[in-house]
Each structure stands twice: as structure tokens, then as C-alpha cells.
Design a protein that fits this description.
12 strands, four-stranded antiparallel beta sheet, 39% helix, alpha+beta
């Protein structure tokens, strides 16, 4: 008999706020940001400042993620706002994932603050006389989840929620149940009791617009969606209609994917705290990513001939495209031009973007022989010297020691994930 899969979805509670709080406590602060009305936000002196994360006490004032800081301060005049710190978040995220990998060889990092873990083969052995092996394995999985929850807190100082189930969808739904610092199960036989009574917008990938349309069709709960006519759903939502029906019934065939390091390429990606639909903002983010990729290429004295861009949309659908450069390069501007060209080819100008990534391939060492053209008057030697000078300043004084003016207005400069 085939062994039942057992999957965890592990989500850091209020990640940016928690990580900022833990870092400050470790460096001498006496007040825990998680225990007072507080938020992680952008530059409050500009109109672009927004709330990226908020504490539980701040929620009681009606403060929400992506809310302008000015509005948040009106709701809570004593709100403590701290700046985001990407490098700190990255370190805590890496430490969090390292703990998970000690418990399973199959960990899929879903974003900077959440991951799926396949625990199926990591539950130990069971006695042959075990009356109900499936139930015994499930009980041990829950025990393992509790161990991980406690280990993360005792080792790193922040809390997580863990959902336990037989597939990724149900595990993620379970982790969103009561927070913080909890372990929840959502096994197939629990769907009707735990998931179906929830409002339809609580189902993964059902956004506000889709929820509004479903409600106009008389579908208010996940259970009503699960029992709705599939043909009717497809008539209104096309392919998404079938997906909605399957998800409402707990059906998910997606497998976990471990992402080993790519030894033949260099790349960075950023998971945004808020979905974006602004082309200028997206290209500013691509510039920042290209600067980081370029710095790594130059540090290793290599050049790339292939540039690729990845977009993950609000519904977690990924799309990517790549192109071959005429001449191998490691310059920021060259990489950015290629990335923007790919972005223009990929994006439909309307679908909200959750993640952007830039990767390079066909890496080579040594001097590059550049093919000169009649109309190209670019001073490549000058640009190379400028890139190297910026690399040296950032290496000595930190990644934020110098920044392009176009990036200083971006509300996402210091948030997201690199890989």
C-alpha cells in the first residue's frame, strides 16, 4: 500500500516585524516591538512610505499592510515605525530554512518567510503491530511539527505557524488558521469541518475580484464553491474555474521542489511585500537586482552571455524568458537593458506581480572581445571602472552606502529575497 504523503507549510508570524524586533533585542533594545503598536515601514518623509509589516497590537487600531504610513499614524499617533533592513531579514530567513533542512532533505522555500517541508520519509520506523499505521504516522508528524515550532523559537527567537496535511494546498490553508505560534492539521476528512465553512476569499488564489464575482453567483463559502457546478465556474472563470473547484475540494497535485544552488549561473530575486502593477517600479527593482548580479560576476571576474528574467504573479504562476547577449557582459547597465527587454516581452501590463528575478548563464572567464559597431559610442571602459568603484564602496561601507537616485524613491528597495 502506497505511503501517505505528509507535508508541512511553515510560515513566520509577522516576519519583517518579528525579525526587526528580535534583532533589536539582540542588540540591546529593551522594548519588544511585537508587544507594542509598531510597524516596519518605508521612508515616512516621502509619500511613498507604506506599512510593510505590523505588530498584533497595531492591528487593533486598524493598521494594515500596504497602508500609507501617514494614514497609519493618524489611526495610531503613538505608532512606533522602524525602517526595514533587508540584510537582517535575509540572515534570519537563511537561519530559519537551515533549521528546516535539518529535519528533511526536501524543503521548498516558497518566499522569504515561508516554506514547504516534505516530512513523509523522516518520521522514523513504526512497530509492525501498530494498529493504524496511517494514524500513527500522522500523530508523529504533528509531534515533529511541534518540535520544529519550539526549535525555531528557542534558537532564533521568533514564532511560526505550521500547517500539517497530505498536500501543499491543505498544509498552507492549515497554517493560516489561528495565529500566532500554532500547529494546525487539515487532513482530507477534516475539510468539510475546518475549511468549507470559511468565506470563499480565504481559499488560496481567490483574490478580491474573484471573490466578488463568486459572491455575485451566490457562492459565499468554500463549501459552496466545492459543490458548485464546474461547467458554470469554467464559463465565468475559464481555467481558473476548474482550479477553484479542485482547491475547494482539497485537490492539489503539485509536488515539492527543492532548489539547489545553480553552479553555472548567478542570480537574485525579490519577493515583494505588496503586489505591484507599476512598470516603472518593476524596472527599478530589476535595476537593483542587476546591480547585485553584476557585482557578483565582477567579483569572480567572469562574464555572462545569457540573461533571464522571472516573474511570479499574484496567483503564484511563474513565467520566464531569456536572451543571448551579442557580447558576454557583467556591467550593470548592459544586464539591466536586457532584463527590461525581457520584462516588456513577458508582462501583460495588468497582472499584479509578486516576485521578480534576474539570472545569468553561459558564464565565461577571461577578457571579452567586443564587436564594435558604427553607431555604438558607449564608453565601456569608463562604465566598467564606474561599476568596480561602486562595488568597492559597497563592499567597504555596506550595500546602501551609495545608490542611484532612481532607486531612492522605490518603496521596495530594502525588501524581498535574494538567492
Amino acid at each position: 500500500m502506497e505511503q501517505e504523503s505528509l507535508i508541512f507549510h511553515i510560515d513566520v508570524n509577522s516576519a519583517f516585524l518579528s525579525w526587526s524586533a528580535v534583532w533589536r533585542l539582540e542588540h540591546g533594545e529593551t522594548t519588544d516591538l511585537r508587544e507594542i503598536p509598531s510597524a516596519v515601514g518605508g521612508d515616512a518623509s516621502t509619500r511613498h512610505g507604506i506599512v510593510l509589516a505590523k505588530s498584533t497590537p497595531a492591528k487593533k487600531y486598524g493598521i494594515k499592510t500596504a497602508q500609507p504610513l501617514a494614514e497609519a499614524r493618524r489611526l495610531c499617533p503613538n505608532l512606533v515605525v522602524v525602517p526595514s533592513d533587508f540584510e537582517v531579514y535575509e540572515r534570519y530567513s537563511d537561519a530559519f530554512i537551515s533549521i528546516l533542512r535539518r529535519h528533511s532533505g526536501l524543503v521548498e522555500k516558497f518566499s522569504i518567510d515561508e516554506a514547504f517541508v516534505d516530512i513523509t520519509e523522516h518520521l522514523g520506523t513504526f512497530a509492525p503491530e501498530e494498529a493504524d499505521l496511517k494514524e500513527a504516522r500522522r500523530r508523529r508528524a504533528v509531534t515533529k511539527a511541534e518540535e520544529i515550532r519550539k526549535e525555531v523559537y528557542e534558537t532564533l527567537g521568533f514564532t511560526v505557524n505550521i500547517g500539517v496535511s497530505t498536500n501543499k494546498l491543505l498544509a498552507k490553508m492549515a497554517s493560516d488558521f489561528q495565529k500566532p505560534d500554532r500547529v494546525h492539521t487539515l487532513f482530507p476528512e477534516e475539510i468539510s469541518r475546518k475549511m468549507w465553512p470559511l468565506p470563499v476569499e480565504d481559499l488560496l488564489f481567490v483574490g478580491k475580484a474573484s471573490a466578488a464575482r463568486l459572491r455575485s453567483l451566490g457562492i459565499r463559502t468554500i463549501g459552496e464553491l466545492a459543490h458548485a457546478d464546474v461547467a458554470m465556474l469554467q464559463a465565468h472563470f475559464k481555467k481558473q474555474g476548474l482550479m477553484f473547484s479542485q482547491y475547494a475540494n482539497g485537490v492539489d497535485s503539485a509536488f515539492l521542489r527543492s532548489h539547489p544552488a545553480d553552479n553555472k549561473g548567478y542570480g537574485h530575486s525579490i519577493t515583494l511585500p505588496v503586489d505591484i502593477k507599476d512598470e516603472k517600479e518593476a524596472k527599478q527593482i530589476l535595476l537593483r537586482l542587476c546591480e547585485r548580479v553584476g557585482a557578483r560576476l565582477r567579483a569572480d571576474e567572469v562574464h555572462a552571455q545569457v540573461v533571464a528574467v522571472t516573474i511570479r504573479y499574484y496567483d503564484l504562476i511563474n513565467t520566464s524568458h531569456q536572451l543571448m547577449l551579442e557580447t558576454p557582459a557583467n556591467g550593470n547597465d548592459t544586464l539591466h537593458r536586457a532584463a527590461c527587454k525581457l520584462f516588456d516581452e513577458l508582462w501583460d501590463r495588468s497582472t499584479p506581480i509578486r516576485l521578480l528575478g534576474v539570472r545569468t548563464g553561459k558564464i565565461g572567464k577571461g577578457e571579452v572581445a567586443r564587436q564594435l559597431t558604427l553607431f555604438d559610442r558607449t564608453d565601456y571602459e569608463k562604465k566598467e571602472k564606474l561599476d568596480k568603484a561602486l562595488d568597492e564602496i559597497r563592499a567597504k561601507f555596506g550595500s546602501d552606502a551609495v545608490s542611484r537616485a532612481s532607486l531612492m524613491r522605490s518603496k521596495f528597495d530594502e525588501n524581498g529575497k535574494t538567492e
